[in-house]
Amino acid sequence: MRTARLVVAAALSGALLAPLASAPAAAQSKPGLERLYVLDCGQGRAGDQSRWSPGVNAGVSFDMVDSCYLIKHAQGYFLWDTGVTDAVAALPDGQPPANPAMTHWRKPKTLKAQLEQLGVAPADIKYVAVSHTHPDHVGNVEMFPQSMLLVQKAEYEWPSPLGVGRFKPEHPVTKLAGDHDVFGDGSVTIISTPGHTPGHQSLLVKLPKTGALLLSGDAVHFKDNWDNRRIPSQNTDKEKTLASMQRMADLMAQHKAQLWINHDKPQRDGQKLAPEFYE
Ligand SMILES: [Zn+2]
User: From the centroid of its chain, how far is CA 132?
Assistant: First the structure.
């Protein structure tokens, strides 16, 4: 009897210990997505709010921010949007707009300096994705000539007013046709949200502790425009913009995601900026 009991006990303890001793099981419990940094990619003063919010505050100026987001994943770094060009940092009065209704951008901190502070070199960035090709989002794409660009085909091939390509033809690119799971584990997903531009995209990020975030790009510019479904008159397609906003709302409900709006200054004033980070 005693011998039989000992054998059973040994078998049980062996079964319990086996998973703990197994290296692959331990590796699986480590999250692939580690952290997200919010970077200051431009500070602006816009001349006329009604340009973004039709019928609201005509002729009234307001402050705007421009955010970039650096994501650290076990497979490599991913940069979402590249902001206003760092060249603006060297201009004593920033970059005044040609049209005074638009945004006067200043660059108190360069993207380069913020990456340096984190110990991240441009060559360390595996992927660069931009929400769309307006200048305050693609300003520093060529700081990362080796990084794989993740852009919707509809945006890449959208004819530009100057008749030249929106990206350097030699820049490595993956042209997307819809949503894209960047690391293959569902932690970072590009979401197709056309309307502001033909190939506009947003980003769903699932952080291990913070939870799910939906980074808007310019699918919406301010919380008030989101709440009231206001569409800027400059958007290329109003119906597609509305459909994209509804899709975003559905995804937020499905994933219990917070909406982080790229240009919304009051919202970003409440966020931690790099070198602090979200896990
Ligand atoms: Zn834009």
Answer: 11
Could you tell me the strand order of the sheet in which 148-152 lies? 103-106, 33-46, 62-73, 76-80, 125-129, 148-152, 173-176
How does pLDDT run across 38-83, given as a tens digit for each residue? 999 999 999 999 999 999 999 999 999 999 999 999 999 999 999 9
Burial of residue 11, with CB atoms counted within 10 A of its CB: 0-12 exposed, 13-18 middle, 19 or more buried? exposed
What span, in angstroms and rounded, lies between the C-alpha atoms of 88 and 105? 8
Q: How far is the CA of 79 from the centre of ligand 1 (A)?
A: 17
Q: How far is the CA of 64 from the centre of ligand 1 (A)?
A: 12
Count of other CB atoms within 10 angstroms of residue 246: 11
250 Cα: distance to centroid of ligand 1 (angstroms): 23
Question: What's the pTM value of the predicted model, to 2 decimals?
Answer: 0.88
Distance set, CA 126 to CA 64, 130, 177 (Å) = 29, 14, 20
How far, in Å, is the centroid of ligand 1 from the Cα of 137? Answer: 7
3-state secondary structure of 129: strand
CA of 133 to the centre of ligand 1 (A): 7
What single-letter amino acid sits at 156? Answer: Y
Ligand 1 centre and the CA of 53: distance in Å? 14
Quick one: the chain helix, strand, coil %, rounded to 5?
Answer: 30, 25, 45
Those residues with Cβ within 8 angstroms of residue 193's Cβ, 6 or more apart along the chain or in another chain: 200, 201, 202, 217, 219, 244, 245, 247, 248
Q: How far is the CA of 185 from the centre of ligand 1 (A)?
A: 29
How far is Cα 78 from Cα 181, in angstroms, rounded to an integer? 12
